[in-house]
Amino acid sequence: MVTHWFKNAVIYCIDVDTFQDGNGDGVGDFIGLRRRLSYLAGLGISCIWLLPFYPSPGRDNGYDVTDYLGVHPALGDLGDFAAFMDEANNRGIRVIIDLVVNHTSNEHPWFKAAEEGDPKYRDYYVWRKEKPPDTRDQVAFPGSQSGVWAYSRKAKAYYFHRFYDYQPDLNTANPEVRAEIKKVIGFWLALGVSGFRVDAAPFVIAHKGPEIEKQPHESFEFINEFREFLSWKRGDAVFLAEANVLPSQMSQFFGERGDRMNMILNFFVNPHLFLALADESPEPLIRSLLQVPAVPENCQWGYFLRNHDEIDLSRLSEMERARCFEAFGPEKKMQLYDRGIRRRLAPMLGGDVQKELLAFSLIFTIPGTPIIWYGDEIGMGDDLRLLERESVRTPMQWTAEANAGFSTASPKQLRRPVIDFGEYDYHRVNVQAERRNPRSLLNRLERMIRTRKEFPEFACGKYRLLESDQPAKIFTHACEDGEGKAVLAIHNLCGERVAAKIRLWSDTFAHAVFLFDDTDDAEIIGKDLPIELEGYGYNWVRLTA
Ligand code: GLC
């Protein structure tokens, strides 16, 4: 089976400033992260995705950049970055980084020059003399943002900002801006990264400002341009797009020949997966999988459960969203932007390790690349006292020692407080404690990661949904490698034990080897495979002739 590395990767997403403090100042940094690479190697992940670590005023967790070619001084310097890259290489771990080029910070020197009237930089952004009509429906963060135009007194004009008003949009229609973006891409590739998570991809290529209503809305050729540059510089480098668009628009982001984004984060299946967990029924998940387009052979979906933002339920109907809220975020303080939930995976699932593993098993087996948000592998909780999306960005819980082993600074100095209350208190939930317990989420997930890597069929095989005599409860699919080998994944979405017969597509299989739990091998009679699963149970099955 031909596999591009990213198709068979397991990605782990890290916010450097909350992962490990290496110099005792209360902020995570590259020195600390480098020390924790042995943990990540042990866990078995193959690629790290770093959230923005650039110089930034930090008003949007680093998504407001003031220098694309540097490292935030609190996190280290380029030397620390290079040392981290070197060590990651030694461990065989690739690194991709966030590319945040839809907008800069309003403190970026480009924007300052633009405000002061420098004609070159003026055209790096999107301006209008008159205040455009009400734009409340165009905002990215309802409730925290009142429109997409803000007035600059210095410039005596309005500038366009899709996100917060301190994040002026770059005018990507300007070839000089695109040249800057390519310079950024080239720079980090030269330092060894394997690609970029492209922040807010649809907005990067959107027609901005007064052009917003013009058809077509986007310039997809910009992605081709960036991708061509990327691939020329480094053949195996990839773009992982944050493209939260309708299924009908997804194919354009891949490009017909897979010559645009290599991977797209699947924001459509994600809420449907949670709806399936809420309804205890595979139906919504199956429906969404059938709705998203087929992926070009050289491309891949990126699947995640939770990430650094709120979980976005806006692709669900109002009733479906209400069911998800009820199941996973019933209180107002758990919800955000009228569309999402700002909790971590473990509290959403009631701290039920079996359910967490079921959810992980789903994103590890549907064809795509699984992405783990740091801390979810140990079932970390959230801090709803923190603002907006910060609730899920608390420091990594390593041990039961002070500050969860994250930092030796005084608690007041910490970048964000550690979770020291309730069920997810770091004294109980931490890496060290889970390491010792063979049945812990961490140890079982580690095994899942290893098994996933042993079965690249899940990543690149031919995939099919299977039928069973328990269609309301179990979700079953198979992946074949084209050489007669096949692997099955079975998931019980409901809380009760279930016995079922799974209908295979061919009668050439005689024997089933179960990969998890102490399940005995089974003989296959005709096309029927008998299985049994505990409530919220899952298993993967190797079929042999
Ligand atoms: C993306 C990021 C989010 C950020 C926004 C603006 O959606 O995931 O965290 O606030 O872009 O950059």
Care to describe what's here?
The chain is 28% helix and 18% strand. The two termini are 19 Å apart. The chain has 3 domains: 373 residues, Alpha-Beta Barrel (TIM Barrel), CATH 3.20.20; 52 residues, no CATH class; 83 residues, Immunoglobulin-like. α14 runs parallel beside α16. The protein has 17 helices and 23 strands. The protein is of the alpha/beta class and 545 residues long. Bound molecules: alpha-D-glucopyranose. The site of alpha-D-glucopyranose (GLC) has 9 residues, from loops. The site of alpha-D-glucopyranose has 9 residues, from loops.
List the helices and strands and how they pair.
Blueprint: E1 11-14, H1 30-35, H2 37-43, E2 47-50, H3 78-90, E3 94-99, H4 109-115, H5 119-122, E4 127-128, E5 149-152, E6 157-160, H6 175-190, E7 195-198, H7 201-204, H8 221-233, E8 238-241, H9 247-254, E9 263-265, H10 269-279, H11 283-291, E10 300-304, E11 311-312, H12 318-328, E12 335-336, E13 340-341, H13 345-348, H14 353-365, E14 369-373, H15 431-436, H16 441-454, H17 457-460, E15 462-465, E16 467-468, E17 474-480, E18 486-492, E19 498-503, E20 511-514, E21 522-523, E22 528-533, E23 538-544
Parallel strand pairs: 1-2, 1-14, 2-3, 3-7, 7-8, 8-9, 9-10, 10-14
Antiparallel strand pairs: 4-6, 5-6, 11-13, 12-13, 15-17, 16-19, 17-18, 18-23, 19-22, 20-21, 20-23
The structure holds alpha-D-glucopyranose.
